[in-house]
TrEMBL record:
The lineage of its organism: Bacteria, Pseudomonadati, Bacteroidota, Flavobacteriia, Flavobacteriales. It comes from Aequorivita antarctica. Pathway: Amino-acid biosynthesis; L-leucine biosynthesis; L-leucine from 3-methyl-2-oxobutanoate: step 4/4; Amino-acid biosynthesis; L-isoleucine biosynthesis; L-isoleucine from 2-oxobutanoate: step 4/4; Amino-acid biosynthesis; L-valine biosynthesis; L-valine from pyruvate: step 4/4. This is Branched-chain-amino-acid aminotransferase. Keywords: Amino-acid biosynthesis, Aminotransferase, Branched-chain amino acid biosynthesis, Pyridoxal phosphate, Transferase. It is an enzyme of class 2 (transferase).
């Protein structure tokens, strides 16, 4: 029996590509999708009918459980094109493992490894013209799973849909990022779903983030839900603090998303002999370091923006500005990561994965 990717996945190609209508120099992140998408349904206890087909709307019952009980998880990864036109993924195994970990937490079935990778590779290959060369350009990849069983009974769905969408992206600059340290609202709690890439984690952050925006801050750094004493993460990015030349970041727990960018920064820092402490970081020690001048940098780490330097933070109505660091840790890790992702440097950790 031939079980090659093309045999297993049913591929329906578009008649004509929409790529000519896309202005690749003026993309709004995550708003335009490539010609094709991947879809696979879970029914009668098995994943069935993996299909690549033209990107387009779905027909779903309004009683599908995802709309009522929020069983939905997702991933975010990117494809990069090097100067020779080769296309690369960055640590895709991590995203595969994580979407299944998220699914388990939401009582959803795990997705098979072979179909995940075959679908990912076939889809990116089919739409590889949508990956534009040039540092910062990429094809954002959005795998996700949702509960599709019809019925508003409050129990886990027996049917699901796994999909992958592709969206062309340009360098994602958040500009000057100012953050508020949370002292009332929480993103996640002990025993909760903070470590899962669950759709609802984002929905829950929008309101408090809007309150921060009204005060001129773009993001919230979440703290532990019980006492708001420890710094955790920014909700779309993990967070690092540089005190003198030591890098601090919260340890992974069931409240924190185990970011691929986070663990890559830690590996790069260790390789460069930078001291990294993965330990609970007190808000008070960061405020004190800011007052003493030993707090050199704060930055976020996540796939979409890679590394985002924070220019100021506010805590209980007091704002602390950070001096701009031209060759600080943030710009150094950003360059090292981009060089690996775009095949511009050695890949000592074996993180690159060629799509061919
Ligand atoms: C996706 C995500 C991150 C960043 O993870 P990466 O794997 O680095 O993209 C950080 N925090 C949360 C809550 C996330 O959902």
């Amino acid at each position: 029996m031939n079980t090659s990717a093309t045999q297993k996945i049913n591929v329906q190609k578009v008649e004509s590509s929409r790529i000519g209508q896309v202005d690749f120099d003026n993309l709004t992140f995550g708003s335009i999708f490539s010609d094709h998408m991947f879809e696979c349904d879970y029914k009668d206890g098995a994943w069935q009918n993996p299909t690549i087909k033209p990107y387009g709307p779905l027909t779903i019952s309004p009683a599908a459980k995802v709309f009522h009980y929020g069983q939905a998880v997702f991933e975010g990864m990117k494809a990069y094109k090097d100067e020779n036109g080769k296309v690369w993924l960055f640590r895709p195994e991590q995203n595969f493992l994580r979407i299944n970990k998220s699914s388990v937490r939401m009582a959803m079935p795990e997705f098979p490894r072979d179909i995940f990778f075959e679908a990912l590779i076939e889809l990116v290959k089919l739409d590889k013209d949508w990956v534009k060369p040039g540092l910062g350009n990429s094809l954002y990849i959005r795998p996700f799973v949702m509960a599709t069983q019809v019925g508003v009974g409050a129990s886990p769905s027996t049917e699901y849909k796994f999909m992958i969408l592709l969206s062309p992206a340009q360098a994602y600059y958040l500009g000057d990022v100012k953050v508020v340290i949370a002292d009332h609202y929480s993103r996640s709690a002990n025993g909760g779903v903070g470590a899962a890439k669950a759709a609802g984690n984002y929905g829950a952050q929008f309101f408090p983030t809007n309150l921060a925006r009204e005060k001129g801050f773009q993001q919230v750094i979440w703290t532990d839900a019980s006492k708001h004493e420890y710094l955790e993460e920014a909700g779309t990015m993990n967070v690092f603090f540089r005190v003198n030349d030591t890098l601090l970041t919260a340890p992974i727990s069931d409240r924190i998303l185990d970011g691929v960018t986070r663990k890559s920064v830690i590996a790069l820092a260790k390789k460069d002999n930078i001291t990294v402490e993965e330990r609970p970081v007190l808000v008070s020690e960061i405020v004190e370091a800011a007052e003493k001048g030993s707090l050199k940098e704060i930055f976020g780490a996540g796939t979409a923006a890679v590394i985002s330097p924070v220019s100021a933070f506010s805590y209980k109505e007091k704002t602390f500005e950070l001096d701009k660091q031209e060759d600080g840790f943030a710009s150094r890790f950003k360059k090292e990561l981009l060089d690996i992702q775009y095949n511009r440097s050695e890949d000592p950790f074996g993180w690159r994965y060629e799509v061919k």
